[in-house]
Amino acid sequence: MIATIKKVIFLSTILFLVIACKKEQPPKVIAVLDETPYVIEHGALPAPDLPVDNPLTKQGVQLGRMLFYEPMLSNNGTQSCASCHRQADGFSDSSRFSLGVEMLPGTRQAMPVFNMAWHSNEFFWDGRAHLLRDQSLLPIEDPLEMNESLPNVIAKLNGSELYQDQFIRAFGSPEITSEKMALAMEQFMLSIVSYNSRYDKYIAGEVQFTDSEERGRVLFETEYNPFFPNLSGADCVHCHGGKNFENDLYMNNGLDSDATLTDIGREAVTQDPNDKGKFKVPTLRNVALTAPYMHDGRFQTLEEVVNHYNSGIQVSSTVDPTVFNTYDTGLFLTPQDKVDLVNFLKTLTDLTFVNEESYKSPF
User: Fold this and answer.
1) How does residue 97 score in pLDDT terms, banded at 50, 70 and 90?
2) Whole-number Å distance between alpha carbons of 53 and 45
3) Rounded to whole angstroms, what are the CA distances from 271 to 126, 170, 265?
4) How far apart, in whole angstroms, are the C-alpha atoms of residue 271 and residue 10?
5) Averaged pLDDT, 223-237
């Protein structure tokens, strides 16, 4: 009898605690559309020309951020966009060729994903994606990358109340589509901005360059001069000019001769032989973080890159004239010039960007 009473008391206590816990649970927050604009901070960079048909909102950027870090986008749940575009590496990959979910290597080095708001001339090394929203979906279905189908991804996301609620906040409806996914990821990638490097602080008068960094800056900005070698510079600004250190063009920078060329680059997209061996010119911001270099990651260090332009140019039918002009003489860079140039390039590293919390995984 006593044992029965104790058992009743024990069960009553458990029931009371369960009821009490249920009463303490906060009511479920009902998701609603939130169109609060997301304002891109860009420092001294020019105001970006953002897509009018996809205005950035805080909830849209947040959804894109979630999707960027979401491994459900891959067929086995092991990889996300961030697997090959890591913030610590300037949203690029430190491997020469990224390995996909099937452990197969890609064919080109992963490009850095930041300051995309200042790119308007297609995306990927060969420009095969017209808009950033188009680029965002292609790795999902690429068999060398995530190797998943968009219908499968949508089915997996539909099983998540978290995502249904976030699609409501971003787009006003729980319906998940590949179009909405693309728009959200475009918003997030447009929000990833780098503008606070040591170089930017130097331009703003907040810091001073070392003697070596300053010599490197002058070399970077000075044109090649075959008639006065002592006055000749590294002539970098022809391709990496402006405040974003790029020209948004596709160029052949003398990596291969016609005989040794194995990747035709832009020509595969345009079908124009004049585009053979041409690739997107990337920004040099955070270049010290984004090794290896070139579309095929052939150079591991900035020193190797400088040596290529100084004395390693290969002649081909589509090599850029500015690059070809240096073929016979090189850039006349001394060993100290090379050190100075690399030291300047390192001033383009933005540690604020690398550590920005709003770019990190939301999970």
Assistant:
1) very high
2) 23
3) 12, 39, 10
4) 79
5) 96
pTM of the model: 0.91
Q: What are phi and psi of 57, to 5 degrees?
A: -125, 160
CATH superfamily of 198-347: Cytochrome c-like domain (1.10.760.10)
The domain segmentation of the chain, as residue ranges, is 58-194+353-359, 198-347
Question: What's the average model confidence in pLDDT over 321-327?
Answer: 95
Q: Considering Cα of 125, then 131, then 135, then 141, what sign does the dihedral take?
A: negative
Contact 256, 314 (CB under 8 A): yes
**Which residue is listed with tokens 């390039």?**
345
Tokens found for residue 276 = 């053979």
Rounded to whole angstroms, the Cα distance separating 312 from 354 reads 32
pLDDT digits (tens, 9 = 90+) for 159-184: 999 999 999 999 999 999 999 999 99
pLDDT tens-digit map of 232-246 = 999 999 999 999 999
User: What class does CATH assign to 58-194+353-359?
Assistant: mainly alpha
Residue with tokens 């780098």: 194
The answer, yes or no, to whether the previous bond of 292 is cis (omega within 30 of 0) is yes
Fold identical between 58-194+353-359 and 198-347? Answer: yes
Say how far apart CA 99 and CA 333 lie, in whole Å.
37
d(CA 283, CA 272): 25
Average pLDDT over residues 7-28: 55
Copy the structure tokens of residue 76: 């086995």
Tokens of 212: 């070596």
Dihedrals phi, psi of 278, to nearest 5 degrees: -95, 140
> Residue 120, Cβ neighbours under 10 Å: how many?
13
